[in-house]
């Protein structure tokens, strides 16, 4: 499982924490917790979804301990189709995502950066699918206000999943 999902857990963790060393620590802790809790895994979701849930819960624990709500977004330019958007537009998108509140940012990251379904995103966040869809709609509306509708439409249209 580590070979299959460690990179995904790292990217997810890094996108929420913004520090490479801390993201590596999260990966280590996530797989340690997954190993310890394997018997409790009900197999009602994909292993990747379960690992993202563990990562999110662990990161939330870290934030509670540090009393820090500041979250950074780093280089996700390579995850988009570079043929349709200029480098300057990617910087603008990244900066706009970093200005979103935590819930909006997490939904955008899970749905569009990590390409997860509404169902998987809901499981990871511990929300209903309706809340994920509503939050996604509001986050995209806010992003459009920050960077303009043409960039989001050309970059990566929202998926219907």
Output the keywords.
single chain, 161 residues, mainly alpha, 0% strand, disordered C terminus
What would you note in describing this structure?
With 161 residues, the chain is mostly helical. The protein is built from eight helices and no strands.
Number of strands: 0
Radius of gyration: 16 Å
Main sheet: strands, sense, barrel: none
Task: Tell me the structural class.
Answer: mainly alpha
Oligomer: single chain
Report the average pLDDT across residues.
77
* H/E element sequence: HHHHHHHH
Layout of secondary structure:
Elements: H1 2-17, H2 20-36, H3 47-66, H4 87-99, H5 102-113, H6 118-125, H7 129-147, H8 149-155
What is the gist of this entry?
By secondary structure, this protein is mostly helical.
